[in-house]
Design brief:
The structure holds 2 protein chains of 2 kinds. Chain A contains 13 helices and 4 strands. Chain A is mainly alpha-helical. Chain A has one domain. In chain A, the strands form 2 sheets. Chain A has a two-stranded antiparallel ribbon. Chain A has a two-stranded antiparallel sheet with strand order 3-4. The radius of gyration of chain A is 20 Å and the shape is globular. By secondary structure, chain B is mainly α. Chain B is flat and about 60 Å long.
Chain lengths: 328, 282
């Protein structure tokens, strides 16, 4: 039963990172252009799917809350301020979709809210992951790091890195969904973003090596983990090929594969810890009765239904967005 | 809650209709809006009051302290009187400037003329909720409910008689009354939540014990301030944009699926209609 919930959690997190990753990335790229036509196309590329994407964050939270309450409590205590800012960013960028069209002279407010909210949300997620990799101070099942225990040069580095990663994901989504101007601009951006991401990964790796993070021992103990970085390298090669040949569908698939590989690397190097290296899955799981109760509702019914409607949503809005469509 | 949400919708529609009539605009549409909103209210307000009474019975049985705090009843009474309005004095454990009706308290609490109703002093001080907040919020909620009942019933009567457009004070009442359901929801919520104190899970977990051990006062303050700021900001603008929508009014043809409608953004339809149709005259 607990393995079922671990699987649901892993799928939800991965889906969230991939899906909201690209629309947060588009949000950040949105801030980099002033051209109204481009901005309009960018919004159209994510408008039908963005709020569906964010439901996976809700699912992640609910599964942690119901199935792994100690992890939920520790994470929310440790990341109180970052998560607060992330939620504020998500709220602002969410309403910007609606309000932007209604605003006349005040449109610039919602442009800032959309790009800024996306940036803050992405940055805070990166910071949280960085702090997890570095290790949170936990004593007798409770977080003891104080208000700013998550703040370190390494976590800030990871925050910036995730922004770059999401922007790359967003640019490859724009290549897939848009035509003309927007697509060409995104094609030009992808090499820079990809190189920046690789550079960032290198710095993170060296930093982790030099600071003797506990995670590093894991990688030395489990050489089979190298499979994931290898997948990432292959995906990056595929990305380069897709960009050179201008295959519109290729970059997104390849960047998504890179993200999946990175996620796999982290998840398996933490295993069996949920909060490295203090709370294991066994320690974190809720009583069997809770897990079983949720299984018959959320597990058997709601979760598969969500997967289906997410798939249907992407089917309905597949293909390029119409340049003439008035999504604004 | 579900009924209350429908009520909020009904009063917003009726309020907008009244506003149009007061401004002398869109007479035909405004009358329909008024009629639909008021008729729905005329059915839902009594239903809401009835369900509120059922909830009251439930509180009476399961959470007697909360019930006593709402009633402003400090000592056991038999038969109990109903305090209509007063200034609860927690230090003196009594009510000042109290206006009360004999026997009605027993009737409301137990549907009897003779029943004994418990008072707050039956419970240890540390198990009592603050009295003034649930006492007053409950009365504001009930007051809103009664006001809505009057507006909905008398308004429906006028609407059937086709006389509502002439009664300008009534139109003002309905127009200004649009936030009543919303105020009632909020004050009802305060009644329930403050009246439940000092428990988070009634009788099981105290609020003081359910605090996150790590959470500090500055952090809680920061999160409260951030949420208040973000919500004021977005709801302020949202209200303004809805006001713009209402001011544009029901112009042009209503049934015309716009090409640019986005399924996950219902407001895009309104936007499309507002910008692309010719403003029709009266």
């Amino acid at each position: 039963m607990v393995m079922f919930w671990i699987a649901v959690l892993a799928i939800s997190i991965l889906l969230y990172v991939l899906l909201d990753g690209f629309d947060l990335g588009v949000g950040m790229l949105f801030g980099m252009t002033r051209d109204e036509k481009r901005r309009s196309s960018m919004l159209s590329a994510v408008a039908p799917v963005w709020d569906g994407n964010e439901t996976w964050l809700v699912v992640t939270g609910v599964v942690l809350w119901g199935a792994f309450p100690p992890v939920y409590a520790t994470l929310l205590s440790a990341f109180y301020l970052p998560l607060l800012l992330m939620v504020a960013g998500l709220i602002l960028r969410g309403v910007a979709f609606e309000y932007r069209a209604r605003a006349g002279a005040s449109r610039w407010i919602w442009d800032i809210a959309f790009a800024g909210g996306s940036l803050v949300a992405a940055f805070m997620q990166g910071v949280a992951v960085g702090a997890l990799v570095q290790g949170l101070p936990v004593a007798t099942g409770q977080y003891t790091g104080g208000e700013f225990g998550w703040l370190s040069p390494f976590s800030i580095l990871c925050g910036i890195g995730l922004c770059v990663g999401y922007a790359l994901l967003g640019a490859s989504w724009l290549v897939k969904k848009c035509d003309g101007d927007v697509r060409d601009a995104a094609y030009r951006l992808i090499p820079y973003l990809a190189l920046a991401l690789l550079g960032f990964l290198l710095v993170v790796f060296l930093y982790a090596l030099s600071s003797h993070f506990a995670v590093m021992d894991r990688w030395l103990q489990r050489p089979y983990l190298l499979v994931f970085p290898l997948v990432g390298v292959v995906a990056m090669a595929g990305l380069a090929h897709g960009v050179v040949r201008r295959r519109d569908g290729r970059p997104f698939a390849m960047v998504a594969l890179t993200f999946a590989a990175a996620f796999g690397t982290l998840a398996i190097s933490f295993w069996p810890y949920m909060i490295p290296f203090s709370i294991t899955i066994d320690e974190a799981q809720a009583p069997h009765s809770s897990l079983a109760f949720m299984f018959w509702g959320e597990g058997v019914f709601v979760f598969p239904l969500m997967l289906v409607y997410a798939a249907v949503n992407y089917m309905v809005f597949r293909g390029k967005v119409r340049p003439s469509a008035e999504y604004h | 809650m579900l009924l209350a949400s429908y009520l909020t919708g009904a009063f917003c529609v009726a309020g907008t209709g009244a506003w149009y009539l007061l401004r002398g605009q869109y007479h035909a549409e405004a009358r329909i809006m008024l009629r639909m909103g008021l008729f729905l209210g005329a059915v839902l307000v009594p239903a809401q009051l009835f369900f509120g009474h059922l909830v009251g019975d439930y509180v009476h049985e399961k959470q007697p302290v909360k019930f006593a705090a709402i009633e402003g009843r400090w000592r056991d009474e038999q038969p109990a009187s109903e305090v209509v309005i007063a200034l609860p004095d927690e230090a003196g454990q009594t009510n000042r400037y109290s206006i009360s009706i004999p026997v009605l308290g027993s009737l409301i609490g137990s549907m009897s003329f003779t029943s004994k109703e418990v008072g707050l002093t039956d419970f240890p001080v540390q198990d009592r909720p603050p009295v003034a907040i649930p006492f007053f919020t409950f009365r504001i909620m009930v007051g809103c409910g009664l006001l809505m009942l009057f507006l909905a019933w008398y308004g429906s009567y006028l609407s059937i008689k086709e006389r509502i457009a002439e009664k300008r004070w009534m139109l003002w009442g309905i127009f200004l009354g649009f936030p009543l359901p919303w105020i009632a929801i909020l004050t009802g919520w305060f009644t329930a939540e403050v009246g439940r104190q000092p428990w988070t899970v009634y009788g099981v977990l105290r609020t003081a014990d359910s605090m996150t051990p790590f959470l500090t006062a500055p952090q809680a303050t920061v999160s409260l301030v951030v949420f208040c700021a973000v919500y004021s900001f977005i709801f302020g603008f949202g209200t303004y944009y809805i006001y713009l929508l209402l001011r544009i009014g029901p112009t042009g043809r209503l049934i015309e699926p716009p090409a640019g409608a986005v399924p996950n953004r219902p407001m895009s339809v309104a936007h499309h209609r507002a910008t692309s149709t010719i403003p029709a005259g009266e």
